[in-house]
Amino acid sequence: MNEIIKVSSLTKTYKLGKREIKAVRNVSFVVKEGEIFAILGPNGAGKTTLIKMLSTLVLPTSGKAFVCGYDIVKDEAKVRKCIGLSTGFERSFYYRLTGFQNLKFFGTLYGMRGRSLNDKIKELSDFFNLNDAKEMLYMKYSTGMKKKLSLARALIHNPKILMLDEPTSSIDPKSAMEIRQRIKEIKKDKAVILATHDLHEAETIADRIAILKDGRLLTVDSPTNLKRYLKHEIIKIKTDGSVSMDKDFFLENGMREKIKRVDVKDETVFIHVENTEEVMDYVVDKMKSMKVKLLKINVEEPSLEEVFLNFMGEKDDKLSD
Ligand SMILES: Nc1ncnc2c1ncn2[C@@H]1O[C@H](COP(=O)(O)OP(=O)(O)OP(=O)(O)O)[C@@H](O)[C@H]1O
Ligand SMILES: [Mg+2]
């Protein structure tokens, strides 16, 4: 797959009087065609600043980035043509125009007109289920409808890359799900880069996730690999409770290194391990030898939330500028 975004050592320092705010520090990554790439980070991590630099709204302080092969500083106009940007900034729409008129206005800014513009608006209104609201004034739109219109606007000139800043913030779960589904469909012939602090969103739609903290990129990987990184699984065994269990039973025969912790709660044993496969046989044999009746075995993976919190807790001294 082609690399459609290349970012290398991108840095943005804002100056506030004498104070310097390092919003983005030395960030490097690539995004490939057909990929949904999520930038995940807490408030103030630098997500919006990164999106703003890649969409040419803010100049980097140092470093380089190429979007569709164009330099974000030298080829600003070409970059803008190649991307569609959707942010939570509602005031960029005309309140006294309808949704349709807004789309028409922004389409003409890209040099579109006549039949092809109308067809595109129709296609996008169908895609985002906005047909009923086409003639409604923008000021009467619900937040969910506004988000969808903003996505439709970002797609009007058929860009290769969609850049989204918090596409589902402050909307209800059903509308958020609908928008995420649409984003997944869009990525088929585009790349999508989206900033979010919503772990569920990142986990459900992103092919790869970049975790950003204090302007630094801590890691980039698929949700599955990020969870693997944590090396923590919990084997949950429900028994009939007829044999009382002691957690030390499991910590013999060199198992202390493989089993991190054992908790017993009522009839269920929770065995925390790095790798389930290494200990499963041992655990089952052990319980059978104790004549324990096993009712149910589940293996729980760590959640993305655990991975995220793990990264958020990383010591700053492990990170370089
Ligand atoms: N125009 C600006 N001038 C000065 N500082 C700014 C400016 N824009 C952002 N910052 C600062 O840069 C840092 C990163 O902000 P940014 O908005 O990029 O973070 P974010 O990850 O998008 O946060 P959020 O989740 O709250 O949207 C913050 O400390 C913020 O206060
Ligand atoms: Mg932001």
Can you give a write-up of this model?
The protein folds into two domains: 3-228, P-loop containing nucleotide triphosphate hydrolases (Rossmann fold), CATH 3.40.50; 232-301, 2-Layer Sandwich (Alpha-Beta Plaits). It contains ten helices and 14 strands. The longest helix is centred in the middle third of the chain and has 14 residues, at 114-127. The protein has helices spanning 47-54, 76-82, 99-109, 114-127, 143-155, 173-186, 199-205, 223-229, 276-289, 304-312; strands spanning 3-16, 19-32, 36-40, 62-67, 70-71, 83-86, 161-165, 191-196, 208-213, 216-221, 233-239, 259-265, 268-273, 294-300. Helix content is 32%, strand content 30%. Mean pLDDT is 91; it is low at 315-321. Residues 14, 16, 21, 23, 41, 43-49, 197 line the site of adenosine-5'-triphosphate (ATP).
Itemize the secondary structure elements and their pairings.
Blueprint: E1 3-16, E2 19-32, E3 36-40, H1 47-54, E4 62-67, E5 70-71, H2 76-82, E6 83-86, H3 99-109, H4 114-127, H5 143-155, E7 161-165, H6 173-186, E8 191-196, H7 199-205, E9 208-213, E10 216-221, H8 223-229, E11 233-239, E12 259-265, E13 268-273, H9 276-289, E14 294-300, H10 304-312
Parallel strand pairs: 3-8, 3-9, 6-7, 7-8
Antiparallel strand pairs: 1-2, 1-4, 4-5, 9-10, 11-13, 11-14, 12-13
The structure holds adenosine-5'-triphosphate and magnesium ion.
The site of adenosine-5'-triphosphate (ATP) has 13 residues, from β1, β2 and α1.
